[in-house]
Amino acid sequence: MKDIKLEMKQQDLSMEVDRKQFAIALKTWRLRKNLTQREVGKMFGVSRYTIMNAENAKAITWEIAYRLFARLSQELRKEADV
């Protein structure tokens, strides 16, 4: 499986995330773990609709993007340690 590079860049007071790359990474991880969008939302402290929007590369607030990015990074690190 090809590694997906995820980055968050600070742009003045905002954060920029490559939405398409993040969407692919989030959905790939979720499907690999055999989780529903609702289950991931519950794990990450957001709604199912937020997960749907993130997986479809739609706009979400930078606070939510940061939360999802941090949690997904944490989950991916856990997998790498196994």
Question: Any descriptors?
Answer:
61% helix, globular, 82 residues, two-stranded antiparallel sheet, mainly alpha
Task: Write up this protein.
Strands 1-2 form a two-stranded antiparallel ribbon. The model has no long low-confidence stretch (mean pLDDT 85). It has 82 residues and is mainly alpha-helical. It has helices at residues 19-32, 37-44, 48-55, 62-81; strands spanning 8-11, 14-17. The protein is built from 4 helices and 2 strands.
Ordered list of secondary-structure elements with their pairings:
Layout: E1 8-11, E2 14-17, H1 19-32, H2 37-44, H3 48-55, H4 62-81
Quick description:
With 82 residues, this protein is mostly helical. It has four helices and two strands; from the N terminus they run ββαααα. A hairpin with a 2-residue loop joins strand 1 and strand 2.
